[in-house]
Write a structure and sequence with these properties.
The structure holds two protein chains of two kinds.
Chain A (H helix, E strand, L loop, with lengths): L18 H21 L8 H29 L5 H6 L10 H4 L5 H22 L5 H29 L3 H15 L10 H8 L10 H14 L21 H16 L6
Chain B lengths: L8 E7 L6 E8 L3 H12 L7 E6 L11 H5 L23
Antiparallel strand pairs in B: 1-2, 1-3
The chains are: A mainly alpha, B alpha+beta.
């Protein structure tokens, strides 16, 4: 490991507080963790065609994460590349949304989560195309096309499940109810976001909430599903306060790289 | 097939480039046309294979049967004059 870590310091101080690094880390971590979650469907999809579709989306997300983490490593300036960031950080150093680390659940849960994240992601990319960081703007332009397809795919599925059989409707509604309290975190702007906006790098997430909600309302209506009323939104991922699930997924994802640190593939 | 619980079958045609013909690449299961199109994209066009996809319900295709082979195709074996290359073109009309 290239960086020394002092265990006694609070989690937030353990990695660079540089806003650009933090902002890019968030972009990368969301997609790395969700991509890994989706890859858990590989070989377990409800039908062969959907198995391939989900793993395609997983690969898109991991590809995006690869690019964002590479940029993050450069912004940090301590010689860490995307592999060092992906495989040699602890859960408290991850900056992903709680939403993306939740277990894959049933197919309805995976689809509801995917729709919520993909719409958010597409709106982010649409705005990030205007970033003053040319690398980031370029990645966003390419990734927006991927996200647009992810939205189309998951929206189509949620409508089919919601407006399907009694059981698929019930499961789809339960999935939407379960994810809803994790969606608020996407639109909370904190100091990192404000600093990223100030330097022309990032987008203010609070501006994405209304268009996101408009899109979700439309899909849920067509799916004959009810928008849940949630009084309290969960948050914490952006500051390293994760659910117990992140540690498990990271241990699985990181074990090979940590067991063979100099291994090449 | 009443005992078949599979979703309807669709045939997939992909055009490799603008203006290229849509060629049959395979088949898949899907509940409707939109899903068939998405599945075709994921199964048959995820490696940059094409710029356009057609999906057609397999049930809409009428196919010749092996029994037809003799009467359909054998008579063509000895009729090379049905190929345009069979005819010599006079020099005077070259380039017409």
């Amino acid at each position: 490991m290239k960086t020394a870590k002092a265990g006694a310091r609070p989690p937030a101080a353990r990695i660079s507080s540089d806003a650009a690094f933090q902002y890019l880390l968030r972009l990368g971590d969301d997609r790395l963790v969700l991509g890994h979650r989706l890859s858990e469907w590989c070989g377990h999809g409800p039908i062969l065609e959907e198995d391939i579709a989900l793993t395609n989306i997983a690969l898109d997300l991991i590809g995006q994460a690869n690019l964002f983490l590479e940029l993050a490593g450069r912004a940090e300036g301590k010689g860490r590349d995307q592999d060092a960031l992906a495989y040699f950080r602890e859960a408290v150093d991850y900056r992903n949304l709680l939403l993306v680390e939740l277990p894959k659940g049933d197919f309805a849960f995976t689809i509801a989560r995917q729709l919520a994240f993909s719409v958010y992601s597409f709106l982010q990319f649409e705005a990030l195309v205007k970033s003053t960081n040319e690398d980031l703007a370029g990645i966003a332009a390419k990734a927006a096309k991927e996200a647009k397809y992810h939205v189309r795919h998951s929206a189509d599925w949620l409508i089919k499940l919601g407006d399907g059989t009694d059981e698929s409707h019930e499961r789809a509604q339960r999935a939407v109810d379960e994810i809803w309290r994790y969606t608020g975190e996407m639109f909370v702007a904190d100091d990192v976001d404000r600093a990223a906006v100030a330097i022309g790098l990032g987008v203010d997430p609070s501006t994405l909430g209304d268009p996101w909600r408009g899109h979700l309302d439309d899909v849920l209506k067509r799916a004959t599903l009810i928008v849940p009323e949630v009084k309290f939104m969960q948050r914490g991922g952006r500051t390293g306060n994760h659910t117990e699930h992140l540690g498990h997924i990271l241990s699985e994802m990181q074990i090979v790289a940590r067991s063979f640190p100099t291994g090449g593939w | 097939m009443t005992s078949d619980n599979q979703w309807p079958l669709w045939e997939v045609f992909v055009a490799a480039g603008n203006g290229a013909p849509h060629e049959h690449v395979g088949s898949l299961h899907a509940v409707d046309a939109e899903q068939a199109l998405q599945n075709a994209r994921d199964v048959y066009a995820r490696r940059n294979e094409g710029v356009s996809i057609w999906v057609v319900p397999s049930s809409a295709i009428t196919a010749s049967t092996p029994d037809d082979v003799g009467s359909f195709f054998d008579p063509a074996n000895d009729k090379v004059y049905r190929h345009p290359q069979f005819y010599k073109v006079p020099r005077g009309v070259r380039g017409v």
